Amino acid sequence: MFCESDLSIKLQYSQPADLLRAQEEFLGSGAQAAASVGRRPDKRRGEQAAGDKQPGTQTYQRDVVTIPDQIPTLTPAGPKKTRFRTDRIHFEDEGPEEQLDRHDTHVTAVLSRIIERDPSAVPVSLPAFTSAAFPKVFHRSEVEDGGPGPAPGGRKSIFAQTIAAQRAREGGVSPRSSTKHGRPFPRPGLQGPNLTPVATMETEQPLSGHRDSAVSESSRLVSGQGLSQQGSTVEALRIHRENQSRLEGLSQTEILEEQQRLLAQLDPHLVDFVRSRKTQDALQEDGGAAGDIGTKADSREPEQDPLQMEMEDDGTEPQPPITEKELPVRPQKEWLHMDKLEPEKLEWLRDLPPPRRRGTTRAMQARFHFTGALIPPTEDLPTHLGLHHHGEEPELAGYSLQELFHLSRSQVIQQRSLALTTLARIISKAQRGDFNSCLKGSVVASLLDAGLLFLLRFSLDDAVEGVVAAAALALRALLVSPGDEETLDSTFSWFLGMEAFPLLPVVVEEEDENDEGLDEALKETPAEKEERKTDHAVASEDVVKGLLRMKLLPRLRYILEVLRPAPQVVLDILDVLTRIARHSSSSARQVLDCPRLLETVMSEFLPCSWTPSTSPAPESLHGLPVAAAMKLLRVLATSGRQACARLLHRMGARERVSRLLALEPQDMLLEPGEALRIGTEALRLWAVAASYGQACDLYIELYPLLVKRLQCVPGVRAPGHALRPLELQRSLALLTLLTNVTHTAGCHQELQSALDSSQDADCPPPPPVEWGHVTGLQPSILGWLKECVRALEEPDQRESALTLLPAQLLYLGAFYSQLNTQLCFRPVECLQELEALTSDVLLPLLAHPESCSVLCDAQSYRPGPETIPSLPHRGHSGGQSLADLSSALPLLTALCHLIHTVASIHRGVAHKFSLLLLSDSLLEYLRVCCQAMPALSHSSTWLLRHEHHLLYLLLKLAYRLVPINTEVAKHASLFHEVAVKMVSWLLPGGEHLAHDLLATVVFNQDFLPEGRCGGPEAAELSELQLHESSSPAPHPLGPLLRDACAQLPSLRGCYLSHLAHLEPLVLRSRNSYLGRTCDVRSRLLPEARGATLPSDWPFLPLVSLYERVGAGGEAEPLPVPVAESATRCLQWLLVLESWREESLAAVPPAAKLARLFCLFLCSSDLFLERAVQRLGWGLLRLLTRPSQLRALDLGVPLPGLASFQDLYVALLVQFEAVSFGDPLFGCVLLIPLQRRFAATMKLAVLGEHVGLLRYLGVSLRQLPVPLDLYTSPPEDSVPVLRLYFRSLVTGALRQAWCPVLYMVALVHLNAFIFSQDSAPQEVEAARQSLLRRSYYLTDEVLKSHLLLLKEPQLESELGFVTYDHLPPIRARRLEVVMGAHKGSEGGKE
After folding, report:
1. Do 682 and 689 meet the contact criterion of CB atoms below 8 Å apart?
2. Residue 84 in contact with residue 40, Cβ under 8 Å?
3. What is the per-residue pLDDT across 694-704, written as a single tens digit (0 to 9) for each?
4. How many angstroms separate the Cα of 531 from the Cα of each of 19, 525, 534, 1264?
5. Crossing angle of helices 1223-1230 and 1149-1161, rounded to 10°
6. Looking at residue 868, what DSSP letter applies?
């Protein structure tokens, strides 16, 4: 392909003028046309033939061809349609010309201009004369064999080959040469005088002089056919040689560039067709072996695009046609129609060719092994593996996803089962990230888009047990992430580790068109909208919800209860049910409500008595305890308090827990590992129940057994034993159970007192366990803790000790936090115990290892490549996880929790823990946290929550140490900045932490040392240096900051009052953090759609005031408390912008400006208050610092704001109504009018709201923004310039009224009218028009300002200086414009 502009191929009569002239001569001669337009009758409509037309029938007019001056641009054609389809489409109002244009699909409509053909050069073949009455019947046996025929690529039947051989003998040509290129040559006696091989393009000779011999002697495109008889061959050869000479003058790079440009314009199907014709011609040339043919074809083919080129190895050559000796069965002569060998039809009998090595960067179809592994295209696998039984690319081993889907619908049971099993293995490997570097895109997403969910659901209804087992395996691979479950199990014993976020996908609710304009009462509820959706729509948004809607739970119950499948299928189904229960509380409720589902699980997989299996691998799990079933109950119990009580009392979970824990693992008659796992899950279920204050009577019953196991725990197996990890998990579950029981026992006294003093029936009863029931556990656990601390020095025991220490510390923290509220509390003995605990345990543990941080490194726990929006997981790919056994996060959190409890009871030992806050690693960690901006996802939220616990406990420790320790007080600013940023990081469920930080740390004077150590004075000094060239600020920052620091308690009360709507969530979160187990409602956290407080929470009082008035409502005067609230908000913003600027880094400067607009929109007179004025000027100067102005971008979307333009228009309306020309309001109004921002806001001011210019009296010295940002670069918007000029001429914009915009208008208009830069014609016309109108102004002052303006100068009286007379350049410009104008007027006259 060649570029038309550089390498155009010339043809005779190729000019449009020649074609039109020939057309006119033909029409003028009145000769009969060679062809006529007819209409084929439609038999279905009963139309008559063209020859039987009735009178009055429409007569088609002669077509006239019109050709434009230029050939239209070639564009890729659309998708091909069936040719019969277009023939059937007719429009009643469509004329013959439109029909011909629409049905014209000739190649000339794409490649070249229309050229008339000369039919005189076409040979006419006359029938041969014979003496017989009828032609002689042809018998194939009478014609001698012409050889084995062409290569398989020729696609010629034996009959066609025989006919070609017969005609070749009649014409005196050999059979092989006569069939060359797919059609025989005409006989010599029937050829025209000029019909030569060159003219018919049937031969191809290499050009000896051209590079690589890649250009032939004759062209493949320019054949000469259709030209006049005389000189057609010479003309075609001349055009071809001219094209070759132009090609030789170009480099290979230029040719490839032109080729790429043409390929991008042409239809890809057309290009493939031309290349296939060329390849067929090359393969059909006469030659030796098939390998030589392939080599010659490759040598003649021009170089292709590197992205589309496929190269074969030198060793792989096309195989020769199959011979009779290679057949497994020799054909016999007696066999009917089998005496002739047909190589093409026997190709399937030979072995598959080896895979070809393709040197291409194009994407190839992925093929998979039955094990789920990806098979490389070059790997040669034996055929007995069964990986070649597919239609496409039979030489490649493996099955594509499409072929596996097709195989899963087979009628053969084994094929369906094999396809589903293979899909399950592929999904498992994709979830682990095995295909990250091999495949583009997501395998799971592709499968879901193809309908995998419906395929698996249908397969579960199959009557064959093997297919059901394969479908269950695939469903488990799709839904369940083994890494998620292992991580959640390992973090169960962390601080509040049993709490987790639901795995709900993020669904963006779109506004329904049917609900527009309706009242809230008439709109559809979310449940009604969900009911209207189809199963496919629901599944595309939420996979689990789609499965529940497809009645998955009843089917799984039927499989477990009736089919009684194999053990692996049972485990797969239990894992799927566990994943559904983790989805949300509503999904867990559906599992509980499914008829006979949990009853089947209880009776079959958690029996109270069972017969031991005789083999290590039982054939059936029915009738045996299964750990996965107990885990399902535990996950269901975390969904809510009522669900847990229902499991314990109605479904018999309490009896199962008691029965399984009463036995030692070796007495369960189960496999040792399974016995430990089921015991661990039973303890975890009991721990969840104890976190609600339930099943505590079971503690009293099993107390001797628990004490016995607690005393035997230190003597566990050796570190290298296979069961050692399981025993450690069992010990952690036991400690977590005792921790929750201790919290419940601590609430007994309070609940009993409330019950005795109140006659309210709603008061909950106290739990059966009392504080005296748990006091005997503390000595055993404390002794165990000390042994673990000593074990840290032993390398073989260090890992086990680090695993057990967090749970032991958490238990002691729970014990001492509840101890000081009991009546039996003895202060002296308790303080002595705490001092001993500090010296023996806490201080040695302060030397902690380094910790990995999700907060500081978002890549350490990023979502995997197979993360699907409709199927969220907590899995991660690569990096160190905070849930690893080697992570220091659980130990640090538990240690800080115990230190916080000890320091709150014994304040005299608090200073001993300063070593932790003064460590260099911790301080560096906190500095990095200040710069962090964590991203929220299902992969990070649950671990970020644990890291928030650590930061909160560190800040609480700093809260106790900063007032009493001078070394710690030096870092108070760092602790304060972390606290301010952490308030906007806390996730749902952490409302108590946010409330506590606001109440203790954020507004604490001790954490703002700048307010006492010269901070206000430093602010004044920096402000003076910043404005040394201008007049001093009317309201200095120093006194404002000093007053704000004095009002910190009032600021705290203001913000806590505005967060009063979060009180229910704060109380719910506090119950969980303080261990008030009887008030905890659920261990399933709220959905984590974002942080609890927005990142711009310091602006919350202003936004609340604006929302109270309403975005479009009328602003009224506000009461005094509301004005005080706005004042407190401005004071806090002033403090943060002055000393904690990084804490508001997550808020864009445009968002800060938009929030500041609320100060003027929420009331008609609030901004006129004196305190608000002083604070507003100070905050405005901070928001207009150079760094803030550089980052200001009004074009980006802002959180919580639909349109900045609409908000600004509302501000303009408010300014016109109530501003009274206030300078502060005017300065805020002028900020968005800077030159670099969009012209829409300038058009709004100068157009619809031009009247406000009368009151916008901000002087140049009052403007906090440099004037250069308004005047540079020159304005290029002609509508804005016209409005500037109109405002000046009409008097709406005057220097006395609006000095800033008057100056801006003069500068831009002066630069525009005297500009001589090249510009479009309409812009130049506007320049000249404005210059003439300026020259003819009657206002001499405005005229001199426009024409004689020199530059802005703030020191001058006018704010700018002017020339005494026009500079020569401006004078010449004015003379040229005015002279041209007079000349045009004279010409008109």
Report:
1. no
2. no
3. 999 999 999 99
4. 67, 10, 8, 57
5. 140
6. B
Q: Give pLDDT tens digits for 615-672.
A: 778 889 999 999 999 999 999 999 999 999 999 999 999 999 999 999 988 888 889 9
Q: Is the peptide bond before 1016 cis (omega within 30 degrees of 0)?
A: no
Q: Report pLDDT digits (tens) over 336-394.
A: 776 677 777 776 666 666 666 555 556 678 899 999 999 888 788 887 788 887 777 77
769: number of Cβ within 10 Å: 24
Give the whole-angstrom CA distance, residue 1199 versus residue 1177: 25
The Cα 624–Cα 647 span in angstroms is 19
Cα 1197 to chain center, whole Å? 18
Whether 707 contacts 1036, CB under 8 Å: no
Cβ 411 vs Cβ 834: under 8 Å: no
In the three-class reduction of DSSP (H, G, I as helix; E, B as strand; rest coil), residue 519 is classed as coil
Minimum mean pLDDT among 19-23, 62-66, 71-75, 1079-1083: which range? 71-75
Q: How many CB atoms lie within 10 A of CB 596?
A: 13
**What is the reported pLDDT for 1004?**
94
**Pairing state between β 1349-1352 and 1360-1362:** antiparallel
The band of 806, judged by pLDDT with boundaries at 50, 70 and 90, is very high
What's this model's pTM, rounded to 2 decimal places? Answer: 0.75
- Cα distance between residue 734 and residue 711, in whole Å: 12
d(CA 1167, CA 694): 57
Amino acid (one-letter) located at 554? P
The encoded tokens of residue 949 equal 């616990």
* One-character DSSP codes across 311-370: ---TT--PPPPP-GGGSSSPPPTTSTT-SS--TGGGGGGSPPPPPPP----S-----B-T
Least trusted range by pLDDT, from 408-412, 510-514, 701-705, 1233-1237? 510-514
**Comparing 45-49, 642-646, 1198-1202, which segment has the lowest mean pLDDT?**
45-49
407 vs 420: CA distance, rounded Å:
9
Distance of alpha carbon 444 from alpha carbon 929, whole angstroms: 35
Inter-residue contact 1105 to 1125 (CB < 8 Å): yes
Nearest Cα to Cα of residue 263 among 224, 294, 302: 302
Name the nearest CA neighbour of 1104 among 1148, 1059, 1146, 1053.
Answer: 1059
CA separation for the pair 1311, 1319 (Å, rounded): 14
| Dihedral in degrees, nearest 10, Cα atoms 1011, 1014, 1016, 1022 | -140
Q: Which two tokens stand for residue 33?
A: 């046309």
Under 8 Å between Cβ of 433 and 482: no
8 pLDDT above the threshold of 70: no
Burial status of residue 818 (CB atoms within 10 A of its CB: 0-12, 13-18, 19 or more)? buried
Residue 120, pLDDT > 90, answer no
Query: Which among 1267, 1252, 1248, 1244 is positioned nearest to 1355, based on CA atoms?
Result: 1267
Is 1248 within 8 Å of 1279 (Cβ atoms)?
Answer: no
Please tell me the distance from the alpha carbon of residue 836 to that of residue 829, in angstroms, as a whole number: 11
Cβ-based neighbours of 773, under 8 Å, separated by 6 or more: 699, 700, 703, 745
Residue 969 contacts residue 962 (beta carbons within 8 Å): yes
Cβ distance 1101 to 1128 under 8 Å?
yes
What Cα–Cα distance (Å) separates residue 855 from each residue in 190, 493, 620, 944? 89, 21, 47, 6
Question: How many whole angstroms separate alpha carbon 375 and alpha carbon 377?
Answer: 6
Both tokens of 420, joined, read 């589903």
Residue 68 has φ and ψ, to the nearest 5°, of -70, 170
CA dist 650 and 641 (Å) reads 14
Residue 1376: φ, ψ to 5°: -65, -45
Residue listed under structure tokens 């952690």: 732
Secondary structure, 3-state, 1176-1213: HHHHHHHHCCHHHHHHCCCCCCECCECCHHHHHHHHHH
